[in-house]
Amino acid sequence: MENTGFDSRALIEEILGGNHRAFQTFVDRYQRLVSHIVFRMVSNRADREDLCQEVFVKVYHSLSGFQYGSKVSTWIGRIAYNTCVNHLQKRKVPLLDDLRPADDEAHSALDSVADEAVALDTAAENRDLFERVQAEMEFLSPQYRAVLTLYHLDEMTYEEIAEITALPMGTVKSYLFRARQILRDRLRKKYRMEDIWQ
Amino acid sequence: MAVRHMADDEIQAYLEKGTSALDQVFDAHLSECRECRERVNEYRRLFTVIGEDRGFELSPGFAEAVTARIVTEQAEAARRRWTSLLLILAGAVVAFGAMAYFMDLRPLWDSLVGVFAPSLQRSAAALDGVQRTVTADTATILMILFCVLILAAVAGADHLLFRQRQAKYCL
């Protein structure tokens, strides 16, 4: 990721000096993190890229107030997470609707969000485990998905995830364990063991 | 004695290296218990798959698009500021006109003309080489022309500084 030769502080100072090229470098550097959070938390594909842009616009306008009290990635992660939370709240999507394997047919507020995943699920039989896990992940609440993503994809620590999500560390840990357990249970219930774990 | 299998949270903690104090105990148990070994492998595979970085691609040129959006927003904000300023000036002119209509501002006007008249007189003389007496009416017309010039300069600056800059980044 550090492909420009700039360290983050120098890059931020360049941006604050009005260098738009430096900001493009900054976006290139952190767009992976932002897309992980936004794509996992927001199921509506049409909204995702626009939200990623919105996150970086907010980052740009807040950059002068960044005090280096935390890592830049944690700070950007928090902005991305809060942007997604606001977006989901506006659309009345519950942030923590703890769907269990037995709740498949329940009338959850997340049903509409998960419809696409169900359709995909019945259409393709030869998908690999990655695609199956992606489809099942759509049934998890946005907060569970965010925590899973930050831990496994962005390799953040419990402390960093707690800082991003403003959740207590114990809650982060329990969400993480619970999300994995739900995923595993859903996969076991839906597929034959030899189909998914081999 | 019944065998105690590993609980789900114990398996997950076991796979998160360095977070379980019981790793050695679990290692010993797993070497003997096939059921727990299979469950550990399931979770291990799940961990790997969740960590796969696929399906998060943004459009090519995303960074440029974000920068263009910011520049556009900044240009619009600046133009809004200029518009507000011009509206304030227009409001001030209207207010002054209304005040002039209802109040006797002759003494104030005379003192203003007294300030501007000598320089206007000199300018007029320089232009046509003819020494003329600048009347209050001529001074009024020149002052209006002066205001029009200022407004034209402001509009020109707005166009040059903001609209062209915005167009450059949008290309």
Question: Describe it for me?
Answer:
The complex is a heterodimer of chains A (198) and B (171). Chain A contains ten helices and no strands. The radius of gyration of chain A is 18 Å and the shape is elongated. With 198 residues, chain A is an all-alpha fold. In chain A, 40% of the residues are buried. In chain A, 68% of the residues lie in helices and 0% in strands. Chain A has helices at 8-16, 20-41, 45-62, 72-90, 111-123, 129-137, 142-152, 158-165, 169-190, 193-196. Mean pLDDT of chain A is 83; it is low at 1-5 and 100-126. Chain B is mainly alpha-helical. Helix content of chain B is 77%, strand content 0%. Chain B has six helices and no strands. Chain B has helices spanning 8-15, 23-30, 34-50, 62-102, 106-128, 136-170. In chain B, helix 1 (8-15) crosses helix 3 and helix 4 runs antiparallel to helix 6 (136-170). The radius of gyration of chain B is 40 Å and the shape is rod-shaped. The two termini of chain B are 76 Å apart. Mean pLDDT of chain B is 78; it is low at 166-171. Classes of the chains: A mainly alpha (198), B mainly alpha (171). The A-B interface holds A 20, 23-25, 27-28, 31-32, 35-36, 39, 49, 52-53, 56-57, 60, 129-130, 133-134, 137, 148-149, 152-153, 176-177, 180-181, 183-184, 187-188, 197 and B 8-9, 12, 38, 41-43, 45-47, 49-59, 62-67, 69-71, 73, 169.
Observed structural traits:
heterodimer; A: 198 residues; elongated; disordered N terminus; B: 171 residues; mainly alpha; 6 helices; 77% helix; rod-shaped
Largest sheet of chain B: none
**CA-to-CA gap between the ends of chain A?**
33 Å
What kind of oligomer do you see? heterodimer
Number of helices of chain A: 10
Residue share in helix of chain B: over 70%
What characterizes the major β-sheet of chain A? none
Mean pLDDT of chain B: 78
Strand elements of chain B, count? 0
Note the total helix count of chain B. 6
| Computed CA radius of gyration of chain B, to the nearest angstrom | 40 Å
Q: What is the largest interface, and how many residues per chain? A: A-B, 35 and 32 residues
- Strand content bin of chain B: under 5%
Helices and strands of chain B, in order, run as: HHHHHH
Which percent range describes the beta-strand content of chain A?
under 5%
pLDDT averaged over residues of chain A: 83
- C-alpha geometry of chain A: elongated
Inertia-based shape of chain B: rod-shaped
CA-based gyration radius of chain A: 18 Å
Uncertain runs of chain B are 166-171
Structural class of chain A: mainly alpha
Percent range of helical residues of chain A: 55-70%
